[in-house]
């Protein structure tokens, strides 16, 4: 079973998200990705945050777990962990999604967004948005 991990990073009433812009779609998502064979959830999330955000994180409590409904990852397990930034600079990630000819479509833009504006954002998956709206 393929697993995916995502970081829920909240600081000063803002959440760090990835703005995804594709030719016919625009939405926000929590940073993260797939867990490689032999890798723990924690190791995968630390790696993904370095690649996508350019920061080192401490992985804390499990915030949410779901079964993906997204067509490309349907049926995969997704685990969202609360994380804290330890070091690094947001926006300096150099993972494959930022490399030319990597096969990734569209752009990835890390952004801090106010928790108060979550209701107006197209944040995916919907279960994450719903839980954040309850806990903000």
Mean pLDDT: 93
The largest β sheet comes out as: 8 strands, mixed
Helix and strand composition category: alpha+beta
**Share of β-strand residues:** 35-45%
Low-confidence stretches: none
The number of E-state strands comes to 8
Q: Report the principal-axis shape.
A: globular
Ends distance: 32 Å
* Rg (C-alpha, Å): 14 Å
Number of helices: 2
Question: Helix proportion of residues, in percent?
Answer: 10-25%
Summed up, what is this model?
The chain has helices at residues 41-52, 126-135; strands spanning 3-11, 14-22, 25-29, 32-34, 55-67, 77-88, 107-114, 123-124. It is an alpha+beta fold.
Describe this structure in words.
The chain is 16% helix and 45% strand. It has two helices and eight strands, in the order E-E-E-E-H-E-E-E-E-H. Strands 1, 2, 3, 4, 5, 6, 7 and 8 form an eight-stranded mixed beta sheet that branches. Strand 1 (3-11) and strand 2 form a beta hairpin. It is globular, with a radius of gyration of 14 Å.
Keywords:
2 helices; alpha+beta; 136 residues
List the helices and strands and how they pair.
Blueprint: E1 3-11, E2 14-22, E3 25-29, E4 32-34, H1 41-52, E5 55-67, E6 77-88, E7 107-114, E8 123-124, H2 126-135
């Amino acid at each position: 079973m393929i697993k995916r991990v995502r970081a829920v990073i909240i600081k000063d009433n803002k959440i760090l998200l990835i703005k995804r812009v594709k030719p016919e779609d625009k939405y926000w998502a929590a940073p993260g990705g797939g867990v490689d064979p032999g890798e723990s959830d924690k190791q995968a999330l630390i790696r993904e945050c370095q690649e996508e955000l350019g920061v080192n994180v401490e992985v804390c409590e499990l915030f949410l777990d779901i079964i993906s409904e997204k067509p490309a990852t349907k049926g995969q397990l997704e685990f969202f962990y609360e994380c804290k930034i330890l070091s690094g600079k947001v926006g300096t990630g150099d993972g494959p999604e930022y490399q030319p000819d990597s096969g990734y479509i569209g752009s990835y833009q890390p952004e801090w967004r106010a928790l108060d504006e979550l209701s107006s954002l197209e944040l995916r998956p919907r279960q994450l948005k719903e839980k954040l709206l309850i806990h903000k």
